[in-house]
Fold:
Amino acid sequence: MFEPVLTQNVGNPDALTLKGYKKAGGYEALAKAVKMEPDAIIEEVKKSGLRGRGGAGFSAGLKWSFIPKDKKPKYLVCNADESEPGTFKDRLLMEYDPHQLIEGCAICCWAVQANTCYIYIRGEYTKSAEILERALKEAYEGGILGKSMMGSGFELNMYVHRGAGAYICGEETGMLESLEGKRGQPRVKPPFPAVVGAFGAPTVINNVETLCNVPHIITRGADWFKGIGTDERNTGPKLYAISGHVERPGTYEHPIGITFREMLEKAGGMYKGGNLKAFIPGGASAPILLADQIDIKMDFDTVAKAGSMLGSAAVIVMDDTTCMVRSVARLAKFFNHESCGQCTPCREGTNWMELILKRIEHGEGTEADGEKLLSICQHIAGNSLCALGDAAVGPVKSLVERFLPEIEQHIRERQCPFPHRRYFG
Amino acid sequence: MPKVTINDRTVEVEKGATLVDAALKVGIQIPHYCYHPRLSVVGQCRMCLVDIWDRGRKMPKLQAACSMKVENDNWVVRTDTPEVQEAQKGMMEFFLINHPLDCPICDQAGECGLQDYSFKHGVAFSRFRFEDKRTYPGRERIPLGSNVILNMNRCIQCTRCVRFTQEISQTAELGFFNRGARAEIGTFPGKPLENHLSTCVVDICPVGALTSTRFRFAERVFYLDKKPSICTGCEVGCNVTMEHRRGKIKRYKPRFNPEVNDYWMCDYGRSTFERYEKLPRLAAVRVRPEATGNGGFYGGWKEALDLVHRRLREVDTSSVAILGSAFLTTEEAYLLNKLANALGTPHRSVPVDLGPTWTIPNLKGGIAGKEQAPNRRGAELVGLTPGEVRQGGALLDATALLKGDAAAQADVVIVSDSDFSEAAHNPQVVERLRRAKLLIVFGWCDSPLAKAADIALPVSTHAEKDGTFVNVEWRLQHFGSAFPAPGQTRPLVDVLVDLLARYDASWSKLTTGQVFDRLAGEHPAFAGLSWDDIPAVGVTLNVPQARAAVDAATASAVQEI
Amino acid sequence: MSVSEPVVQKDQVNAPPLPADVKAQITELRTRYPKSEAVLLPALHLAQLAWGGWLPDEAIAAVAAELDLPVSKVYGVVTFYDLYHQNPVGRHRIRVCTNLSCQLRGSEEIMEVLHQELGVGEEEVTPDGRCSYVHFECLGSCDTAPMMMVDETYHENLTPQRVRQVLQGLK
Structure:
């Protein structure tokens, strides 16, 4: 029976306070960590196989090891921007267990010897920001943060920095630009943030969920962590945010690699008993999977092999009343709206894709449209300055490749064959 | 120094050089819009994508050549693979889908980045046929300042102009507003684009989004002939290209000279040629009947110069004052000095005109010009005395002549106002100079001074002669004539050589180049130089002030690194 | 001097001083960052509150003057982000998520209800200045779809009736 790890304090309102959190076992990991060598912590996290939970799935320990030892200052920026459509897991962690995040950040700062941590939280999450500010205040008062972190003599300052409404600020260099008070336009890489990051200094950027795993790895060990999951490249517990046409949408913690079928069952099955048509495994940027892939293991590698990506594990479920063209057109509109406008393929390409998909949805599609969309996708993917271009391509490409008959039906019938569903009478 | 191989050509470059520059060194042009050697690298137009093999392994994605800096010998680059060509086609298509078909009415046609790369790297048909182009209603002809007009529909969002105002002119008037496909360039209300380098953004804009108010609809660029020259606006001596058609200059554009003005020039300098059309031209030799001493004057240049020669012989030559100007070329000033020697008069001077300081940024910390004329130093080196600089100069020096009553004491005043001087239009100055018994004026403009002169002799404008200038940093730069002088007008060098030949036949029929070679032989500052060998970027003269200036510039450049 | 001297337009940016409490908060926030430019986003949030929920030009100029930044840069930041408004908004600002998960659970109908109840279109302010609403991108509450954000509060699991209830409570 899988015991919750990350969500163990959800449902215990006491854990929002420092006292309650400690009573539930909190800050033991940090106390243990400050007695360890920073490099030992990095090794332990590397060994655990923890991969970034924000979408890229990059080895967290490896990322931490890129930080040069001899430079000062250094920063940790916690990516709490969570703007990927379908994702809401970080919000749960911040609103119900803020100290878990603070502890994870503190351990990371100790490991890379960063004296300042910024929690970059999206501007819309006012409630989470307030809860975090309160928890930080308690942490300072309780000696966890400040001039001497847990009495170790290591100065650690942690601040909440609110964003102002831009998905692109979830991209790591876009986030750094936004933190520095500029437009959130991603930078050219190299140099990478580990070399030149926030304010020109080496910086680690990690997702909220990734950092929340760290205290547990320290207390229970890398081997315990590796014991959860599919194989040594896909380890640990994972939060899955499931929404759309399911009975009980919400955030569920499972060992990484649970099958989609199981996940769907645990979320109450299809909404009002509908029939599964398609599902998105990892947020708006993930290519759409078909109903017959229902037994897929939801881990990084299996989903990648199936032609999609686990990303932020934001699962969106669609039943057979859904028009795929309308759904992907909405995602294309999202990417067009969120494109920062710097680079040509993304700025023009996402705009064009939205226009074409809108045209098809309104019955004005032409035969060449499917091929045109694929060609646009080919010109954007790999050529854009940051990953938003590639993300925008994901759903559109999968639409044309896997749902071409639906597109053709729109074009042939000169209208959308799926009536707008009424949910409220 | 690291080496990199591009399309099978290997080149050695400075460590940290970008691939775009490295490719240029071996004659390969990697297309680009947002990259500029003097602006920060943003890598955002994605036009410069190339294939790179790092130690034999191909990088999985195409890389933007402008942001790839060569640090070692590991790279082999190709700009001609099918992937690169497909990417270039894709990028060109993306640039054009929302771009208006304005070529017939757009100033940039003929020197447009979209036209050029479309032709070279793009496709000849559009697939954007059923959607509406994104436009910026109301932003099709917005004056951003007094010199620049924006057409936002044409903009390709390369942000060169924004980075220019932030990094080069450091005035930050332009900003990048909004996001995504609605992103636009603009100014904040109340802070227009007003700085002395503002028209440079028109030069660096690859398309016709930013156009110059002065040049708007003035001429099609493919009809313009281009002549390299030097600006006459101030003592900086920015290198320019005179763009002209049928004897009329239509535009000045800055010419790259890393030692002087780099890629830039100021707005005032760009306006200096307009006077040639606006002001009346002195078209023919004009002599007042009183000046001949024996009735009317019927003749051309020979007769006029004979008359000048005769009148000069009749007076006590110590009362002859020669007033030059800092617009004279070094050769013209040299010949005036020789004339003064031939006459035996000590009075030979140039006025010094001070104005607002124009600073042009370059890699050596910038170059600033306060004098409003290009060649006071050249004139000074070859013997003319500066009027403002030295106190207690010759009695009939420039200050005394222009501001005081000195002309009344002169028998003859020869004014050689080569290009333009405010003094020639100032009625008080004209009235003072008129008090001379005989007033001879060499000029191109039929100014009030020329009208008041006894003998007015028409000479070339700056565009119609060869010559050299010495700039504020004692750098000698040369230039050539763009078109011949019209009508009876002759280059001043030819006129003076003719006049001097009446005193010493060895001057007869010398060309400007020959005059320069003579002066180089006589003045140690120019030692070792010859007209045919003056380098294209100019050469610093061997003058103690010049050496100090060069040392100071090197010191500040070293500090910047 | 020249026959064609350009007329130089003077810098005429109207930058009133910031309200004292905003200035004090910004000064305190500055200590958190090594560069004062980094306090721009928090400063704009504070200024926006002080100016009634949106940022007129004078507010932008005031923040730029306080942080010693060029106005064009600050304006670039304001126009980049969705939470900074350059046009007047209602006393209550409603943002309805219409992204995919919410679209799959009836967000379009919620937008219809708002249009009906408020009588104005998107981005318009009701005549009494009470409300304005816009569609928005994913607000991170997909499990409680459809939902909307009113000022700083999330209203989740909406039905047309719930929407009307919420609207009634807005003054």
Notes: Residues 92-277 of chain B form a domain with the Alpha-Beta Plaits fold (CATH 3.30.70.20). The CA atoms of residues 285 and 299 of chain B lie 8 Å apart. Confidence is low (pLDDT under 50) at residues 389-394 of chain B. Chain B touches chain A through 39 residues (CB under 8 Å).
